[in-house]
């Protein structure tokens, strides 16, 4: 029996946010004046509290089973801090935040791109990219997730030159 493991993409780990007031994402850094990228878990908990989830879905794909298909289960992943009530999902590596993901319309980048913007707006603002579901700009510390030519998620991460 051959079994392949597939973690839900990092995008899917952080859906369901609800930030109410408009806030500015500083590409590669954080939210408004708070530098989130680079924080350790204790700093995150001191600032945002401990009301977060670390549950992720893991899908197993069984190709040689009598009934081939996906088998889902939930597991705890200490690299994930999903602050659903605060409207923020964080991904940690080696105990430090390496990226934050947002899906709330009230979030706007410092360059003026918000959830709901068009692919064209992203391309005009950050530069042209291929028509893929993800428009990633490592030199700016930001990625946009696109469906039907509309931004549905924004991720920030450390700027990579």
Verbal overview:
With 161 residues, this protein is mainly beta. The protein has two helices and 13 strands. The protein has one domain (17-54, 77-157): protein yfey like fold (Sandwich). It has helices at 41-48, 119-126, and strands at residues 3-7, 23-26, 30-31, 34-35, 55-62, 69-76, 80-83, 88-93, 96-102, 107-109, 134-137, 142-147, 150-157. A hairpin with a 6-residue loop joins β5 and β6 (69-76). The radius of gyration is 17 Å and the shape is globular. The protein starts with a strand and ends with a strand. The model is unreliable at 1-20 (pLDDT under 50).
The low-confidence parts are: 1-20
Strand content: 35-45%
Task: Give the overall shape.
Answer: globular
Task: Describe the sheet with the most strands.
Answer: 6 strands, antiparallel
Instruction: Please state the second-level CATH architecture.
Output: Sandwich
The share of residues in helices is under 10%
SSE layout and pairings?
Elements: E1 3-7, E2 23-26, E3 30-31, E4 34-35, H1 41-48, E5 55-62, E6 69-76, E7 80-83, E8 88-93, E9 96-102, E10 107-109, H2 119-126, E11 134-137, E12 142-147, E13 150-157
Parallel strand pairs: 2-10
Antiparallel strand pairs: 1-5, 2-3, 3-4, 5-6, 7-8, 8-9, 9-13, 11-12, 12-13
The gist of it:
The chain is mainly beta and 161 residues long. It is built from 2 helices and 13 strands, in the order ββββαββββββαβββ. The protein has one domain: protein yfey like fold (Sandwich).
Features:
globular; four-stranded mixed beta sheet; mainly beta; 10% helix; protein yfey like fold; six-stranded antiparallel beta sheet; disordered N terminus; 161 residues; single chain
């Amino acid at each position: 029996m051959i079994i392949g493991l597939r973690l839900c993409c990092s995008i899917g780990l952080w859906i369901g946010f609800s930030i109410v007031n408009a806030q500015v994402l500083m590409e590669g850094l954080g939210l408004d004046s708070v530098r989130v990228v680079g924080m350790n878990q204790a700093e995150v908990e001191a600032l945002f509290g401990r009301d977060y989830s670390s549950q992720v879905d893991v899908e197993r794909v069984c190709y040689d089973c009598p009934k081939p298909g996906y088998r889902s289960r939930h597991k705890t992943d200490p690299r994930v801090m999903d602050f659903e009530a605060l409207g923020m999902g964080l991904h940690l590596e080696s105990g430090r935040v390496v990226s934050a993901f947002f899906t709330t319309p009230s979030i706007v980048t410092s360059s003026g791109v918000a959830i709901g913007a068009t692919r064209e707006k992203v391309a005009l603002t950050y530069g042209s990219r291929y028509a893929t579901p993800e428009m990633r700009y490592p030199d700016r510390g930001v990625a946009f997730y696109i469906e039907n030519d509309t931004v549905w998620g924004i991720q920030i991460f450390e700027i990579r030159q």
